[in-house]
Amino acid sequence: MSDDTIRLVTIGRILRRRWRLLTVLAVVGALVGYGTSLLFPPRYTTSASVLLPGQWEERELLTQAEIATSSVVVDRAAATLRWPGVSGRELQDRVSAKAADGNIIRISGTAETPERAQRLSDQVAQQFVAFAARLAGDSTDPGSAAGPDALRKMVVQTSRRITDLAEAADPGQTVESVQARTELEKLRTALQDAVKKLDEADPATDRATMVVMGPASRPTGEAAPTRTQFIVAGAVLFLLLAVVGHLAAARVSRRLRTAPEIAAALGSALLGTVDVPGEGPGRHTEGRGPRARIRRLLGVDTRWDVPDPQPSGGEAGRRIRYRRVCARLRDRLPGSRRLLVVVPDGDEIARRAAGQLVSEAEDDASPASSGRGYPVLRAVGVSVSRPLVPDRDTESGALVVLSAGSWTAGELAGIAEACADAGHEVVGFVVAGAVRGRPTRSAGRPADEAAPALAGRGHATGGSV
């Protein structure tokens, strides 16, 4: 897994084999999300729309949206609302504005209740219209409106004075009188053009007063994030963290999966691979007590990172593999010898394979057997945490049976050292794998019935590593 690409089939295998644990974690995440939602009171949001008549550019609308949420407007709204303990700075965090299509500024307010949210939006909209009108000159300040009107009156009076001067000029046709009247007419025309440009430049001529398009609607639902969203987010977050945790653990796993790695850790050679019928991945935790029951209940006693078992080739093909292993042992040990079949505790697949291997060696002991001379095998279980192998007595060697991807290099090296400490030479190892399909009954004993009980560790007298 450390070198494999993460694929959808890997994630599917996690969901299929660890669905109980993932369900529990999702429920825990939902509870955490519910508890987090209690720390955040519900909030409600509503909007009030302000229409800006006339021609407006996009940057001008953005400026008006900034003005709507400015401290001047929000402070005036806070002073009008007079909510206890709520200042203009706090309200500024609850108010937002954006420019919409059609020269509309949409002002949104958020509060703890629907009534407050509605009042906040309406009040900010009204204060924005009043402040914008004051900026545009449409206010009650007499000094701001008297300037253009006084200038127009002065232009009218000047135009009348020019007319009087033109009539009082020499009515003759002298050059001087004609030039004087011409200059007066030019001055009148210039003043009229100036008044016209002043009227065109006045924003009040082409932009009417901003209008609040009705009161804000009272919100009927909470603003995001709601309590339901907190619960769903907590469940999804814990589920994702669990999946990512499984993938990360598999990435950093040091369990050996290939024959060369296992051979290097045990310091021995591979004698063959055998198959064990089984419908699912092997279980590596056997025991009693509350912790073991909880692990079985959550499904964490089942390996998820092992591939699905391949279809079985039939009992005959499986027995051929066991016989080939026995034949290689006979060739490696010409004389009839006794060997210990060492199986790591918790490796259910290896335990069943060792039982079948012992059964095949016993079946060959009859005089009519064509393969007479197989070593006599005895299976023993060894703890990987404190490996202890029986001392050398009648057995003069050890055969290690294990499943791939189950043990680290350090654990296998500990088993090899325990064998050496007990005086047993590791003559080789056998890799067992699970296959789909139930074994058919043959004339001989079934594999499960033929598996002898592993030797108890309490009777071992060898050293430990």
Give a written overview of the molecule.
The structure is a single chain. The protein is α/β, with parallel strands linked by helices. The protein has 4 domains: 8-40 and 225-251, no CATH class; 44-136, Alpha-Beta Plaits, CATH 3.30.70; 143-206; 259-459, no CATH class. Helices cover 50% and strands 14% of the residues. Strands 5, 6, 7, 8, 9 and 10 form a 6-stranded parallel β-sheet that branches. Strand 7, helix 14 (348-363) and strand 8 form a beta-alpha-beta unit. Helix 4 crosses helix 6 (114-135), helix 7 (142-168) runs antiparallel to helix 8 and helix 13 crosses helix 14. The longest helix has 27 residues, at 142-168. Mean pLDDT is 80; it is low at 366-371 and 439-465.
Write the layout of secondary structure elements.
Elements: H1 8-17, H2 19-39, E1 44-51, H3 58-68, H4 71-81, H5 88-92, E2 95-100, E3 104-111, H6 114-135, H7 142-168, H8 175-201, H9 203-206, E4 211-212, H10 227-251, H11 259-266, E5 270-277, H12 290-298, E6 310-311, H13 315-332, E7 338-344, H14 348-363, E8 376-382, E9 398-403, H15 409-421, E10 426-436, H16 447-450
Parallel strand pairs: 5-10, 6-10, 7-8, 7-9, 9-10
Antiparallel strand pairs: 1-3, 1-4, 2-3
